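comment on this one:
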Amino acid sequence: MKRLTAQDWIDFALTMLAREGAQALKADVLARGLGVSRGSFYWHFPGLDAFHAHVIEHWKKINTEAVIADIERHQAPAQRLDALLSQAFGRSAGLEIRMRAWAGDNVAAARAVDDIDRRRREYIARLLVTAGVAPALAATRAQLLYWSYLGAASSRTRLSPERLEAMVAELGRLALGDLRGAPTGNGRRPRRPRA
């Protein structure tokens, strides 16, 4: 059997968090799941708090920073928004839900969730501003999109590919308003040029 690395422990912890919740993030529970002794855990981490800090940082990295980096590959802001919405609404939200539940009992997890919520909203608002939405309106629409995501995550509803595509298209229209031919921020449709 290969020797476990600190990253192996962190990755397994996120898997267990998504599957069983924060109560699984204990050295003995994880060691049993990995089929090793607790000594392997303490070889890599001085204690549970330090380990939890690594788990939280890795969650932030893979569930937000890596997603943003992937979205930034797209050239046009509307394409970025569509890609972001497709990823957010198309993936399993088990880890997101469990992290938020853990944040109810753990100060470090709560701080991380607050930081990530702010980071995500700011990123969405920046995408909208880049697409031409006024900054104040972009902040409001970013909040609404983010609440939609959190609601969808909490519902645990799996969307078919067709339903996901329709949802992404409609959310994109709502977010970009007149930039996609939908109602403007004042509720009116943009004027069409006269023939």
